[in-house]
Design goal:
The complex is a heterodimer of chains A (301) and B (157).
Chain A lengths: L1 H7 L13 E2 L1 H9 L9 E5 L16 E2 L2 H5 L10 H10 L7 E5 L5 H12 L5 E4 L2 H7 L34 H7 L4 E3 L3 H5 L23 E2 L15 H11 L8 E4 L5 H12 L5 E4 L2 H5 L10
Parallel strand pairs in A: 1-5, 2-3, 2-4, 4-5, 6-7, 6-8, 8-9
Helix pairs in contact in A: 5-10
Chain B lengths: L11 H11 L3 H14 L15 E2 L8 E6 L12 E6 L5 H14 L4 H5 L12 H4 L1 H23 L1
Antiparallel strand pairs in B: 1-2, 2-3
Helix pairs in contact in B: 1-3, 2-3, 3-6
Classes of the chains: A alpha/beta (301), B mainly alpha (157).
Chain lengths: 301, 157
């Protein structure tokens, strides 16, 4: 019986600081087979992709689409949705405050990690990532469907509550970063972005930033170093070798991660917070598209 | 090339695509974009295994490559030579493929002068900002500017 075997085996993630933040493709397939996918009392599976059309080409059975731009960003101000909008996005997908949510996506779960981080801003307790994301599920030849589940939005007492976002613990703004200068910062962009040689060719505009380089003192640890070839996270031992031994970061130091718009750094935020158990990691979502355009902030090349 | 493109018109085929999108509601626009994605022609045999010789569109976060061919005739009137476009983008990047599909259907077979006259803001005229997000549309802007640049280079030589 796969189910009993799974419950007696130690979790494959038990070495991580917060092992309950990850699920395996196998575990999710078991939940599906057992009819446990679908809210609010079962597991709600959300697909969050960079590519806004990917869900429509086929997704994990029972999964619902959560688009980072359409559903999580405010349409006018560069900020996340407010409490009412968030509650309505959740209720529409059958997610209650206590529902177990599993998120997966393309690109090594960048956008899935981003969605998880935004849900964490609203204090949703039980939200997990599918280790290896969409790519691993597909590579294993598991089922995909184009059927979009019909969900009755939660309403009345069952509806997702209006919970104010609490940014301070895990989100850094530009002023927070300025006040933090001298403290540990992790730049998770590619080495070319870090050094300031942005990808560009003659006649093409540079993408999105007036200045190239990085925030002074930031360590360059491209996000992908935390991932295996198949998109799963590296073991805790391997991660410690990179972030602690090689980079000299310490789990007890307040740390800030950033990238270009905050999505790749959500991946690293997840690694530092949930896999390595850092106490206080903030994601600077303004990232280089804000810093590289801001007047008179210090830049290192 | 700087020019005031605010009022410039789209080529006919492209305008028809823009009208089709404009007639739809946002969710249906995504479906139509998916159809363009699925309809993007396969890369012809002669480009097989030669991605390195094609131009990568770095504005897109997915690996997409394009090649531009300009005909030799008429020899005395370079602006009237036909332009053909070829794209290679993975199935896992349907939005990027959809953008390529729109550009292919809207531009392939036009003359050099017609392609060079396409306004830079053309990608914003498919009513996709709301459904896809303006940020994602930057990839299509990158594709178009690279196409025009290659057409200009290949006509000059």
């Amino acid at each position: 019986m796969p189910e009993s075997a799974a419950s007696t085996d130690p979790s494959p993630f038990s070495a991580y600081a917060h092992p309950d933040r990850l699920v395996s493709t196998e575990w999710l397939a078991e939940q599906l087979a057992a009819g446990k996918v679908g809210g609010p009392d079962g597991v709600v599976v959300l697909e969050s992709d960079e590519d806004v059309l990917l869900y429509e080409t086929g997704h994990i059975p029972g999964a619902l689409k959560l688009d980072w731009h359409q559903d999580l960003n405010d349409p006018v101000v560069r900020d996340y949705v407010d409490a009412e909008q968030f509650a309505s996005v959740m209720s529409a997908r059958g997610v209650g405050r206590d529902t177990t949510v599993v998120i997966y996506g393309d690109k090594n779960n960048w956008w899935a990690a981003y969605a998880l981080w935004v849900m964490s801003l609203f204090g949703h307790e039980d939200v997990r990532l599918l280790d290896g994301g969409r790519t691993k599920w597909v590579a294993e030849g598991r089922e995909l469907t184009k059927d979009v589940p019909q969900v009755t939005p939660l309403s009345g007492d069952a509806a997702y509550p209006i919970v104010e976002r609490d940014d301070a613990p895990i989100r850094a703004f530009k002023d927070d970063v300025l006040a933090h200068l001298g403290g540990p910062l992790v730049d998770v962009r590619s080495p070319g972005e870090y050094s300031g040689e942005l990808l560009h060719m003659p006649d093409y505009p540079q993408e999105g930033a007036m200045r190239g380089g990085h925030i002074p003192g930031a360590k360059s640890v491209p996000w992908a170093r935390a991932a295996n070839e198949d998109g799963t996270f590296k073991s805790r031992e391997d991660l410690e070798a990179i972030y602690l031994t090689e980079q000299g970061l310490s789990p007890s130091d307040p740390t800030i991660a950033y990238c270009r718009i905050g999505e790749r750094s959500s991946h690293t935020w997840f690694v530092l917070t949930h896999l390595l158990g850092f106490d206080a990691v903030r994601n600077y979502d303004g990232s280089w598209t804000e810093w590289g355009n801001a007047v008179r902030v210090p830049v290192e090349k | 090339m700087t020019q005031d493109t605010a009022r410039a018109e789209l080529p006919t085929a492209m305008q028809e695509i823009a009208d089709d999108f404009a007639d739809l509601l946002a969710p249906q626009r995504l479906e139509l974009l998916l159809e363009f994605s699925e309809g993007l022609p396969e890369l012809p045999e002669r480009y097989a295994g030669r991605l390195g010789e094609m131009e990568q569109v770095h504005e897109c976060q997915s690996p997409i490559f394009l090649a531009v061919e300009v005909g030799d005739d008429p020899a005395d009137s370079p602006g009237d030579r036909p332009v053909h476009l070829f794209f290679s983008a993975p199935q896992e990047a349907p939005t990027t493929r959809g953008f390529a599909g729109i550009l292919h259907e809207g531009l392939d077979g036009l003359t050099v002068d017609e392609v060079l006259a396409v306004p830079e803001d053309a990608p914003y005229r498919f009513s996709l900002g709301e459904a896809v997000s303006p940020l994602r549309l930057r990839g299509m802007v990158g594709m178009l500017s690279r196409i025009k640049r290659q057409v200009a280079l290949k006509t000059r030589s």
